[in-house]
Every structure is written in structure tokens, then in C-alpha cells.
Design goal:
The protein is mostly helical. The chain contains 18 helices and four strands. The chain has one domain. α6 crosses α11 and α8 crosses α11.
């Protein structure tokens, strides 16, 4: 029986061909896989709440709702992640709620219009496979490096330190029982560590539903959101959150590939629905899909369950939610991030061929060193030169 080998696990092509992958499943393995992307989601959500004034409960509420909608619509573990360029600028420059909302809403409008007008298909048709694989390679390596750096600054002997990270990494690496929800077990272990190290975490607990409010930016915030948020974010979203994630969907689910038009429209609608009410600008991402798949997620049921957990946390934890997510062990989130990056980078292996390898490696290396946009531009230059040289040899 023919099999597709990914992330050192196998998944039957016959299973997808029979339509089984169209049915969402709800079990411990799916739930375990859904937790694989928390290493990206939690640090950015917490930072934007602390520095920029977003309500963490509202962020969790809308992220959870979009997880549920995404899982139901796509029937695959497509993640809901923060828009990283907007998040990075917002955190670095201390943008306010109005400026973040403007950036997210503008991204929503741009992507929705591009999807309807054929702009996304036009861009997709002009990005070679070598560039897509280079994006996956570069973003994957960056995620892994970020995870390693998170571990590097931890104390060596503390309970949330190097030793815990090594133990968790070893468990994930060595345990190969497919039905065992390893990431769920690790996540629960992290909660135990958190409760041991943060004794007074629930002392200030107070019941309170998320404070959802309408956010409408002023003229200055619109301009800041456009120039500092939407413009830097657009190429990253088109390349990694639309084109690359659709390519990865095709790798994991032969014959069930999600179109770039649907993916772009989904990202656009998410931001138009959530951001005006205080939600965080969000997208889908190839790194999140690789992470969730790596730890066992195979259907949309995984992200539906994750969304349910986020909604539950938003409406029950109330005043302690911020402290809860801040207190979660960094050592565990960092290890998850390393494995997520490795899984995403590994998908570039089929581009290690004479005609593709130069552009793929150039794209990936430049992304690691200078960022996604420069990596893609450099990759196109190398791809063009390679094609020209090969054509002269014929």
C-alpha cells in the first residue's frame, strides 16, 4: 500500500482517498496535536496584551471561535496564529489597540478583495516550487532557532529550565507510539509544574466574562496601521499563510489540497469579523500546520477542540487568565517550537534536486538572516539565474 512519509510518521494515502479525512475526529490524539502550535500563539498573545493593551480574554475568545470555524470549514488542522509582522511591530513600538485594529482590518479588506478579484491566484501562479519550499525551510529553521534561544536563557537547574526542556525533548523524540497523545501529556505536565511554582496563581481569581467592545481607529491610527502593520504583513501573509500553507496541505492530504483563494478569503474574513471587536490580527500558517500535524492532529476536530479550550479559558479564568498564560513553563513551549520548526523545514526535502536546490537554499538562508521578504526576493534572483544557466546548457 502506497504511503506518504512525513515527520517520521506515516499516513495512508488510501485513508485520504476514501474520504475519511473529511470527517472530523475528536479524540486524545487530535487534542494532543492541537496543542503543538501554542509555542507560537501564547508568547505573542501575552506580549501584545501586556505592551499594547489588548484584552487577553477577548484575544482567546475570538481566536477560539476562529479555530472552531476553521476546523469545521477546512476539515484539516489549519491553525489560527497571530500575524507576526504586525505583532512584532506592535510589540517593538508599543502600538495601541486602535492602530493594531486598523492594521488587522486593512489586511482583512486587502486579502478578501484579492481573493475575489483573482489577485491571489495571479501571485500563486508566479511563485515557483523552489521558492515555496525555501519559505518553509527558512521559516522552519527560524522557529527552531527561536525555540533554542528561549531554552538558552533559562536557568540550568530550575524546574522550568534546561533539564525540563531536555527531558521533554527526549520524551517527544523517543516515544513513537502513534496512539499515545504525547503533547497532551507534556502539556498537562507543564500545568503541574506551573501550579507547583506559582502557588498564589488563583488567589486573585474573580469571575468575569470577556469585555468585548467595538474598536474603530481614528485617522492617524489608520495611517499607522497601514504603513507599519499592513504593508509589512501583506507579503508574509501571501507567501507563508496562503501559498506555503496550501502547499503543505497538499503534501499532508493528497487530493484534498486547499486552494489559495479559499485560504486568503478565510484570513480576510477572520480579521474583518474579529479585529473590530478587540481580537488580535490573525492568519493561518505553515509552521502551525506542521506543528499540529507533527504531534498527532489529522482532522479539523483537533483545532475545534483547541478552540473550545480557548473559549472556555476566556469565559472561566477571568482575571487570572493573563497570569495563567504568563506562568506556563517556557521550557515546554520552547521545545514544542523547536519540533514545529524542524517539522516545517523537513517538508523542503523534495526540493533538494539540481534544478531547485540553489533557489530553495538561498531563499531559506536569507529568510533566516534577513527576513521573509528579502529571502523571497533573493530566491527569485537565484532561481532566475539557475534557469538561465540550465537553458544555456541545452
Amino acid at each position: 500500500m502506497m504511503r506518504l512519509i512525513t515527520d517520521e510518521q506515516t499516513i495512508s494515502i488510501d485513508e485520504h482517498a476514501s474520504g475519511e479525512s473529511d470527517k472530523n475526529r475528536y479524540n486524545f490524539r487530535e487534542l494532543s496535536g492541537s496543542l503543538g502550535d501554542l509555542g507560537t500563539f501564547l508568547p505573542l498573545a501575552v506580549s501584545m496584551s501586556l505592551i499594547c493593551g489588548l484584552d487577553i480574554a477577548v484575544v482567546f475568545l475570538f481566536a477560539g471561535l476562529m479555530n472552531v470555524a476553521t476546523g469545521w470549514y477546512f476539515r484539516q488542522p489549519i491553525p489560527v496564529q497571530p500575524m507576526k509582522a504586525i505583532a512584532a511591530v506592535a510589540i517593538a513600538e508599543g502600538l495601541g489597540v486602535g492602530e493594531i485594529a486598523a492594521a488587522g482590518m486593512l489586511m482583512g479588506v486587502i486579502l478578501f478583495v484579492m481573493a475575489l478579484g483573482g489577485g491571489v491566484d495571479w501571485v500563486t501562479g508566479r511563485v515557483p516550487k523552489a521558492i515555496v519550499r525555501g519559505i518553509q525551510l527558512g521559516v522552519g529553521v527560524k522557529l527552531a532557532i527561536k525555540g533554542v534561544m528561549m531554552i538558552w536563557i533559562l536557568p540550568i537547574q530550575a524546574i522550568d529550565g534546561w533539564m525540563t526542556a531536555f527531558v521533554v525533548a527526549g520524551l517527544i523524540l523517543l516515544i513513537r507510539v502513534r496512539w499515545l497523545p504525547i503533547m497532551l501529556m507534556v502539556f498537562i505536565g507543564g500545568m503541574v509544574i506551573m501550579l507547583i511554582t506559582k502557588n498564589g496563581l488563583f488567589e486573585s481569581y474573580g469571575w468575569g466574562l470577556p469585555h468585548v467592545r467595538w474598536v474603530w481607529p481614528n485617522s492617524e491610527a489608520w495611517w499607522t496601521g497601514l504603513t507599519k502593520g499592513a504593508i509589512p504583513q501583506l507579503p508574509l501573509t501571501l507567501l507563508n499563510s496562503v501559498i506555503a500553507v496550501c502547499a503543505l496541505s497538499a503534501d499532508y492530504y493528497p487530493g484534498k489540497r486547499i486552494s489559495e483563494k479559499k485560504m486568503a478569503m478565510s484570513v480576510g474574513l477572520m480579521n474583518l469579523v474579529c479585529v473590530p471587536f478587540g481580537g488580535m490580527p490573525a492568519c493561518h500558517g505553515s509552521g502551525g500546520l506542521a506543528a499540529q500535524y507533527r504531534f498527532g492532529a489529522r482532522t479539523g476536530g483537533s483545532v475545534i477542540m483547541l478552540g473550545g479550550l480557548k473559549i472556555l479559558a476566556a469565559v472561566t479564568l477571568g482575571s487570572v487568565l493573563m497570569g495563567f498564560v504568563q506562568a506556563y513553563p517556557v521550557s515546554i513551549l520552547a521545545v514544542a517550537l523547536v519540533y514545529a520548526g524542524m517539522a516545517l523545514a523537513w517538508t523542503a526535502k523534495d526540493a533538494m534536486k539540481r534544478r531547485l536546490i540553489a533557489a530553495t537554499m538561498a531563499t531559506g538562508l536569507i529568510i533566516v538572516a534577513y527576513g521573509t521578504l528579502w529571502g523571497v526576493l533573493g530566491g527569485f534572483v537565484v532561481y532566475g539565474v539557475t534557469e538561465w544557466l540550465l537553458s544555456r546548457k541545452k
